Amino acid sequence: TTSNIIMQRSRPLTTLSRHLFQKSNLRVFSRSFTGTSVTDQEHRSNGKKLYETHVPISNIERTVLTVASAVTALNDPYRGDMIATLGEATGRKFLASMRDQMLESSVGRRILRERPVINTRALDFDKLKRTCAPGTFGQVYISWLEAQGVTPDTRCDVKFVDDEELAYVIKRYREIHDFFHTLTGLGVTVEEEIALKWFEWAQTGLPMTMLASLFGPLQLSWSERKRLYTGYVPWALQCGASCQPLMNVYFEEHFHTPLDEFRKQLGITMPPQFHDK
Q1: 108, containing H or E segment
Q2: Is 133 helix (H, G, I), strand (E, B) or coil?
Q3: What φ, ψ does residue 231 adopt, rounded to 5°?
Q4: What PANTHER family does its record include (predicted)?
Q5: b/e map of 165-190 (b: 16 or more CB within 10 Å)?
Q6: Is 57 inside a domain boundary?
C-alpha cells in the first residue's frame, strides 16, 4: 500500500532523526552543517534556562530538531514525543496567539495567573471517583481514563519553548487533550485521534495538528479515510471553529457539571456515528 511504501522509504530518515534528536548530536550536526562552533559557554550566554524542564537551543539546532521530529512523526504517528517536540519547535507564533486569546478572557487570565496542573499529584482522582455523580463531566472523564488504560501523568515535559508563559500554554494544551476526548466522545483509534487533531487545528492553528491531520490518514484503510473525510473532518472543522475556545475553560471547576449540560455551555456538538466501524 502507499502507506507501507512511505514507511519503508522513510526508515533511514527515521534512524537519522533519532540520532540527531540527542542534544549532543544536535550540536555536532549544526556545527558541521554551518562550519561554526557553538560552545556550551556561548550557548548559555545566548539563552538561559527559563523553567525547570527548559532546554535552550540555538536557531540552527531548532531547525535540525524540527526536521528530525517531523520525519519521525510522519513515519510513526504513534510517537507522541516527536509530535510534541515538533509542536514546540514550530509553534511559537501560534502559542502566542493562543496566549493572547486567553488574555482576552477573564477565565483565561485566571488560568494563566494560577497555572493549574492536571495530573494525579494535583488532582485527587480517588475523591473525584467517589463524589462525581453518574453522567457528570468528571465521572465520564475518569471512566474514560480507566477504559483506555491511560493516565494524565504521561504527557511529555515542555523543553524547547523559549518563553516561560508560552511553555505553560502548550503544557496546558497537552493536559486538557483528554478532556477533548470526553467532550466529543471520540476514542483513541488512529481514525478518531486524527479527527480530534482536525478539531484541535480549528481551535488552535498549531502546525503540528495540521501535520497529523494531513499525513495521519496514510495509516488508514480506504473505508476509514472515507469516513474521516466525509464525516469526521466536516464536523471537526465546524465544531472546533464554532465552540468556545477551550483553552479558556477552567475544566477542573466543572467536574460535577452534567456532561450534556457542559457540552451545551461550550457549544460542543457530537461527531457523526458510524455503524460500520
Answers
A1: helix 106-114
A2: coil
A3: -120, -60
A4: UBIQUINONE BIOSYNTHESIS PROTEIN, UBIQUINONE BIOSYNTHESIS PROTEIN COQ4 HOMOLOG, MITOCHONDRIAL
A5: bbbbbbbbbbbbebbbbbbbebeeee
A6: yes
Angle at which helices 207-215 and 59-75 pack, to 10 degrees? 30
Return all residues near 229 (Cβ < 8 A) that are at least 6 apart: 217
Q: Is 29 helix (H, G, I), strand (E, B) or coil?
A: helix
Q: Does a structural domain hold residue 191?
A: yes
C-alpha cell at 249: 475553560
**What CA–CA distances, in Å, run from 128 to 135, 174, 179?**
13, 21, 15
Q: CB of 133 within 8 A of CB of 256?
A: yes
> What is the extent of the structural domain holding 214?
2-266
Q: 77 Cβ partners below 8 Å, 6+ apart?
A: 83, 190, 193, 212, 215, 216, 219
How many CB atoms lie under 10 A from the CB of residue 36?
A: 11
**pLDDT tens-digit profile, the chain (277 residues):** 433 433 443 444 444 444 444 444 444 444 433 333 334 433 433 568 899 889 898 889 888 888 888 777 767 766 777 777 877 887 789 999 999 999 999 999 999 999 999 999 999 999 999 999 999 999 999 999 999 888 898 888 999 999 999 999 999 999 999 999 999 999 988 899 999 999 999 999 988 787 777 777 777 889 999 999 999 999 999 999 999 999 999 999 999 999 999 999 999 999 998 766 5
Domain membership flag for residue 194:
yes
Three-state secondary-structure class, residue 258: strand
Tell me the C-alpha distance between 152 and 88, whole Å. Answer: 19
pTM value surpassing 0.85: no
